[in-house]
Amino acid sequence: MNYEISIDDVRFSYDDREVLSGASFRLGRGIAAVYGDNGCGKTTLGKIMAGILKPTAGAVRVPSSTTYVFQNPNHQLFEETVREEVGLGAVSTAAAKRALESMLLDPRRDCATLSYGERKRLAFCCALASEPALLIADEPFASQDLFGRQAIAKALRRVPSVILLTHNPVSFAAKNMRLHRGKIIGGCGIARKSERT
Ligand SMILES: Nc1ncnc2c1ncn2[C@@H]1O[C@H](COP(=O)(O)OP(=O)(O)O)[C@@H](O)[C@H]1O
Ligand SMILES: [Mg+2]
Prior knowledge:
The protein is α/β, with parallel strands linked by helices. It has helices at residues 42-49, 82-85, 94-102, 116-129, 146-156; strands at residues 5-14, 17-27, 30-35, 57-61, 66-69, 134-138, 161-166, 175-180, 183-188. It has a 6-stranded mixed beta sheet, sandwiched between helices. Strands 2-1-4 form a 3-stranded antiparallel beta sheet, covered by helices on one side. β6, α5 and β7 form a beta-alpha-beta unit.
Protein backbone atom coordinates (compact mmCIF):
# COMPACT_ATOMS: atom_id res chain seq x y z
CA MET A 1 0.00 0.00 0.00
CA ASN A 2 1.21 3.48 -0.82
CA TYR A 3 0.85 5.46 2.41
CA GLU A 4 0.14 9.05 1.41
CA ILE A 5 -0.58 10.14 4.95
CA SER A 6 1.76 9.63 7.85
CA ILE A 7 2.04 10.99 11.34
CA ASP A 8 5.31 10.11 13.01
CA ASP A 9 5.86 10.57 16.74
CA VAL A 10 3.88 13.81 16.86
CA ARG A 11 4.00 15.76 20.10
CA PHE A 12 2.07 18.87 21.04
CA SER A 13 1.75 20.90 24.24
CA TYR A 14 -0.49 23.79 25.21
CA ASP A 15 1.83 25.81 27.44
CA ASP A 16 3.34 23.16 29.73
CA ARG A 17 0.63 20.53 29.26
CA GLU A 18 1.44 17.79 26.75
CA VAL A 19 -1.67 16.69 24.85
CA LEU A 20 -0.01 14.56 22.15
CA SER A 21 2.97 12.53 23.33
CA GLY A 22 4.17 10.59 20.33
CA ALA A 23 1.14 9.90 18.12
CA SER A 24 1.91 7.85 15.01
CA PHE A 25 -0.10 6.25 12.21
CA ARG A 26 -0.04 5.69 8.48
CA LEU A 27 -2.94 5.72 6.08
CA GLY A 28 -3.55 5.22 2.41
CA ARG A 29 -6.84 5.76 0.64
CA GLY A 30 -10.24 5.28 2.20
CA ILE A 31 -12.19 6.41 5.23
CA ALA A 32 -10.54 6.25 8.66
CA ALA A 33 -11.60 7.51 12.07
CA VAL A 34 -9.60 8.72 15.05
CA TYR A 35 -11.80 8.30 18.10
CA GLY A 36 -11.45 8.91 21.79
CA ASP A 37 -12.78 10.56 24.91
CA ASN A 38 -13.48 14.25 25.29
CA GLY A 39 -10.26 16.17 25.64
CA CYS A 40 -8.00 13.34 24.42
CA GLY A 41 -6.58 15.56 21.67
CA LYS A 42 -8.58 14.69 18.52
CA THR A 43 -9.15 18.30 17.49
CA THR A 44 -5.53 19.18 18.24
CA LEU A 45 -4.34 16.29 16.06
CA GLY A 46 -6.74 17.25 13.25
CA LYS A 47 -5.56 20.86 13.31
CA ILE A 48 -1.93 19.73 13.20
CA MET A 49 -2.67 17.55 10.17
CA ALA A 50 -4.46 20.45 8.49
CA GLY A 51 -1.53 22.78 9.17
CA ILE A 52 -3.52 25.02 11.53
CA LEU A 53 -1.30 24.09 14.49
CA LYS A 54 2.41 23.29 14.38
CA PRO A 55 3.56 20.18 16.26
CA THR A 56 6.14 20.60 19.00
CA ALA A 57 7.98 17.60 17.55
CA GLY A 58 7.47 14.86 15.01
CA ALA A 59 6.68 14.69 11.32
CA VAL A 60 3.39 15.11 9.45
CA ARG A 61 2.92 14.09 5.85
CA VAL A 62 -0.41 14.86 4.16
CA PRO A 63 -1.45 15.64 0.57
CA SER A 64 -1.09 19.28 -0.46
CA SER A 65 -4.83 19.47 -1.10
CA THR A 66 -6.01 18.72 2.43
CA THR A 67 -9.17 20.41 3.75
CA TYR A 68 -10.51 20.60 7.28
CA VAL A 69 -14.15 20.79 8.36
CA PHE A 70 -14.33 22.44 11.78
CA GLN A 71 -16.55 21.03 14.51
CA ASN A 72 -18.42 24.33 14.62
CA PRO A 73 -19.56 25.38 11.11
CA ASN A 74 -19.86 28.98 12.27
CA HIS A 75 -16.06 29.08 12.24
CA GLN A 76 -15.93 28.68 8.48
CA LEU A 77 -19.11 30.12 6.94
CA PHE A 78 -19.04 33.81 6.10
CA GLU A 79 -21.20 34.51 3.04
CA GLU A 80 -24.86 35.50 2.81
CA THR A 81 -26.17 32.71 0.62
CA VAL A 82 -25.45 29.03 0.13
CA ARG A 83 -24.54 29.75 -3.51
CA GLU A 84 -21.91 32.32 -2.52
CA GLU A 85 -20.54 30.13 0.24
CA VAL A 86 -19.70 27.20 -2.05
CA GLY A 87 -18.40 29.52 -4.77
CA LEU A 88 -21.18 28.91 -7.28
CA GLY A 89 -21.96 31.61 -9.81
CA ALA A 90 -18.94 32.97 -11.61
CA VAL A 91 -17.08 29.80 -10.72
CA SER A 92 -19.62 27.05 -11.04
CA THR A 93 -18.11 23.66 -10.42
CA ALA A 94 -19.68 20.28 -10.88
CA ALA A 95 -18.26 19.16 -7.52
CA ALA A 96 -19.99 22.02 -5.66
CA LYS A 97 -23.32 21.36 -7.36
CA ARG A 98 -23.09 17.63 -6.69
CA ALA A 99 -22.24 18.26 -3.02
CA LEU A 100 -25.22 20.60 -2.55
CA GLU A 101 -27.57 18.10 -4.19
CA SER A 102 -26.32 15.24 -2.06
CA MET A 103 -26.77 17.34 1.09
CA LEU A 104 -30.22 18.57 -0.03
CA LEU A 105 -29.17 22.21 0.24
CA ASP A 106 -30.83 24.78 -2.01
CA PRO A 107 -28.18 27.22 -3.33
CA ARG A 108 -30.68 30.11 -3.05
CA ARG A 109 -31.04 29.74 0.72
CA ASP A 110 -29.90 32.54 2.97
CA CYS A 111 -27.18 31.13 5.28
CA ALA A 112 -28.72 32.90 8.27
CA THR A 113 -31.86 30.76 7.92
CA LEU A 114 -30.03 27.42 7.98
CA SER A 115 -30.23 25.18 11.02
CA TYR A 116 -27.00 24.21 12.77
CA GLY A 117 -27.07 20.77 11.12
CA GLU A 118 -27.63 22.36 7.70
CA ARG A 119 -24.75 24.77 8.30
CA LYS A 120 -22.53 21.82 9.10
CA ARG A 121 -23.58 20.10 5.87
CA LEU A 122 -22.85 23.34 4.00
CA ALA A 123 -19.36 23.39 5.51
CA PHE A 124 -18.92 19.87 4.13
CA CYS A 125 -20.10 21.08 0.71
CA CYS A 126 -17.44 23.80 0.73
CA ALA A 127 -14.77 21.22 1.54
CA LEU A 128 -16.08 18.80 -1.11
CA ALA A 129 -16.23 21.58 -3.72
CA SER A 130 -12.45 21.95 -3.50
CA GLU A 131 -12.11 18.25 -4.44
CA PRO A 132 -9.45 17.54 -1.81
CA ALA A 133 -7.18 14.51 -1.75
CA LEU A 134 -7.66 14.37 2.03
CA LEU A 135 -10.65 15.66 3.98
CA ILE A 136 -10.41 15.86 7.78
CA ALA A 137 -13.69 16.42 9.62
CA ASP A 138 -14.06 17.19 13.31
CA GLU A 139 -17.15 15.58 14.89
CA PRO A 140 -18.85 15.21 11.50
CA PHE A 141 -22.09 13.78 12.87
CA ALA A 142 -22.78 16.29 15.63
CA SER A 143 -26.29 17.75 15.24
CA GLN A 144 -27.09 15.47 12.31
CA ASP A 145 -30.21 13.36 12.05
CA LEU A 146 -30.15 10.01 10.24
CA PHE A 147 -30.61 11.67 6.85
CA GLY A 148 -27.73 14.06 7.50
CA ARG A 149 -25.42 11.28 8.64
CA GLN A 150 -26.23 9.15 5.62
CA ALA A 151 -25.80 12.10 3.23
CA ILE A 152 -22.39 12.93 4.71
CA ALA A 153 -21.29 9.29 4.72
CA LYS A 154 -22.30 8.88 1.06
CA ALA A 155 -20.61 12.11 -0.07
CA LEU A 156 -17.38 11.16 1.70
CA ARG A 157 -17.03 8.06 -0.44
CA ARG A 158 -16.07 10.32 -3.35
CA VAL A 159 -13.02 11.70 -1.49
CA PRO A 160 -9.77 9.70 -1.90
CA SER A 161 -8.81 9.87 1.80
CA VAL A 162 -10.93 10.87 4.79
CA ILE A 163 -10.14 11.15 8.49
CA LEU A 164 -13.08 11.58 10.85
CA LEU A 165 -12.47 12.80 14.40
CA THR A 166 -15.20 11.27 16.51
CA HIS A 167 -16.23 10.24 19.98
CA ASN A 168 -16.95 6.64 18.96
CA PRO A 169 -15.67 4.29 16.26
CA VAL A 170 -17.41 4.77 12.92
CA SER A 171 -19.18 1.74 11.44
CA PHE A 172 -18.36 2.56 7.81
CA ALA A 173 -14.71 3.47 8.39
CA ALA A 174 -12.20 0.96 7.05
CA LYS A 175 -9.94 1.78 9.99
CA ASN A 176 -10.76 3.02 13.50
CA MET A 177 -7.85 4.26 15.60
CA ARG A 178 -8.16 5.17 19.26
CA LEU A 179 -6.36 8.23 20.58
CA HIS A 180 -5.64 7.70 24.26
CA ARG A 181 -3.20 9.45 26.59
CA GLY A 182 -1.56 11.27 23.71
CA LYS A 183 -0.95 8.23 21.53
CA ILE A 184 -2.73 6.18 18.89
CA ILE A 185 -3.14 2.91 20.73
CA GLY A 186 -4.77 0.71 18.17
CA GLY A 187 -6.49 0.34 14.88
CA CYS A 188 -9.44 -1.93 14.51
CA GLY A 189 -10.84 -2.72 11.09
CA ILE A 190 -14.44 -2.94 12.17
CA ALA A 191 -16.10 -1.22 15.10
CA ARG A 192 -17.88 -3.31 17.67
CA LYS A 193 -21.64 -3.23 17.14
CA SER A 194 -22.31 -1.58 20.48
CA GLU A 195 -19.93 1.26 19.60
CA ARG A 196 -21.18 2.09 16.11
CA THR A 197 -21.90 5.68 15.14
N1 LIG B 1 -6.14 26.57 23.06
C1 LIG B 1 -5.96 25.74 24.10
N2 LIG B 1 -5.24 26.12 25.18
C2 LIG B 1 -5.04 25.28 26.22
N3 LIG B 1 -5.53 24.02 26.29
C3 LIG B 1 -6.26 23.59 25.23
C4 LIG B 1 -6.52 24.42 24.09
N4 LIG B 1 -7.27 23.72 23.20
C5 LIG B 1 -7.47 22.51 23.77
N5 LIG B 1 -6.88 22.43 24.99
C6 LIG B 1 -6.89 21.26 25.88
O1 LIG B 1 -6.17 20.22 25.24
C7 LIG B 1 -6.81 18.97 25.46
C8 LIG B 1 -7.16 18.35 24.11
O2 LIG B 1 -8.15 19.15 23.50
P1 LIG B 1 -8.83 18.74 22.13
O3 LIG B 1 -7.77 18.51 21.12
O4 LIG B 1 -9.84 19.79 21.81
O5 LIG B 1 -9.51 17.35 22.50
P2 LIG B 1 -10.76 16.59 21.86
O6 LIG B 1 -10.98 17.17 20.48
O7 LIG B 1 -10.35 15.15 21.82
O8 LIG B 1 -11.92 16.80 22.77
C9 LIG B 1 -8.01 19.25 26.32
O9 LIG B 1 -7.68 18.98 27.66
C10 LIG B 1 -8.28 20.72 26.12
O10 LIG B 1 -8.85 21.30 27.25
MG1 LIG C 1 -12.63 18.03 19.65
